[in-house]
Amino acid sequence: MTQYIIRRLLLIPVILIGVTLLIFGMLSMLDPAERAALYVRNIPKNEHVMDSIIRRYGLEDPFLTQYWHWLTGKRDVDTGEITGGIMRGEFGYSRSGNTTVADLLQRRFPATVELVLLSIVPVIGIGVWLGIIAAVNHNKFIDQVARVFSILGYSFPSFVLGLLLLMLLYANNGWFPPGRISDVYNAVINGPGFTSYTKFITIDSILNGRFDIFLDALRHMVLPVITLSYIYWALFLRVMRSSMLESLNQDYITTARAKGVRNQDVINKHARPNALIPIVTMAGLTIAGLLGGVTITETIFNFPGIGSAGAAAAVQLDVITVLAFVLVSGIILLFSNLIVDIAYAFLDPRVRLS
């Protein structure tokens, strides 16, 4: 098991180099003047100023030299100051966010994480539960209902569902508004009397003893969570149902039943653990995808997460911001795959042996 984990860990630097080289290669398609404009707040009209920016960031150096400076930063010969360097958290200036990319990520990413954490528990829990019920009651009425539910959910566009929910539960009744927090409470959060410990509004409101803010934050997340959950419920239901049916038809299940093992024990102790193996892979990739930015859902509900910020950057051709978000998404996916591989090895010893 230890050797298996070490092999996976040794692959991470290699994959990271490949990901960063690919992203930097896309950035290098721009000429030096265009790339220099991505690092400054206002594009200088003076040609000499632009040339000095190009020299400062080494944008006419050889490709590998530029790649190294992009990773670690470039030291100014005259002042000794290091500029740039994504490893130092300096991605450049985001014109769509009117701030640095690092600051935009710091402000927007916690909102997406908070939304994902509230969504993933019902996504996995309900999807797996419905899948088991459908498989155990194969070809019965409840199985037919679950199959219709999964087909409708998996084929239903998220933007259509989101707009329907907004129309029914906000436009008509005003129950669950879009956004992350009401304007009144937003002023409180940004005021002097509120301490932001984690950047998660739900957690910080509890730590500050403001349960009114906590309830308001939950009220704003109801519709995005339902939109995300319903679509992924359907996907997890279909996969879990198929996997559970396959497990229930194995010889060891027949043997367990022949020995007189209770049906509940057959399902919970023998069939379900093996059926959960593909769910582990799906869960890891789903979490990674959601953390990378639930772009459509966040845009529909005006939720200030990383997905809506990425969409705004793409519309405004904010190249440096889009590439930074791609890099963050790639890193999240990489480490999610690592966790999935390790969890897979715990569930299935054959993976370790191979």
Describe the protein in words.
By secondary structure, the protein is mostly helical. The chain folds into two domains: 31-93, no CATH class; 101-176 and 222-353, MetI-like (MetI-like fold), CATH 1.10.3720.10. The protein contains 17 helices and four strands. It has helices spanning 2-27, 32-37, 47-57, 63-72, 101-136, 141-155, 158-171, 183-189, 201-207, 211-248, 251-258, 263-275, 277-291, 295-300, 306-315, 319-347, 349-353; strands spanning 74-75, 82-83, 93-94, 99-100. Helix 5 (101-136) packs antiparallel against helix 6 and helix 15 (306-315) packs antiparallel against helix 16. The chain starts with a helix and ends with a helix.
Query: How many beta strands in the DSSP annotation?
Result: 4
CATH topology of the largest domain: MetI-like fold
Mean pLDDT, nearest integer? 83
| Class by alpha and beta content | mainly alpha
Strand/helix succession: HHHHEEEEHHHHHHHHHHHHH
Which CATH class of the largest domain applies here? Mainly Alpha
Strand content: under 5%
Globally, the shape reads globular
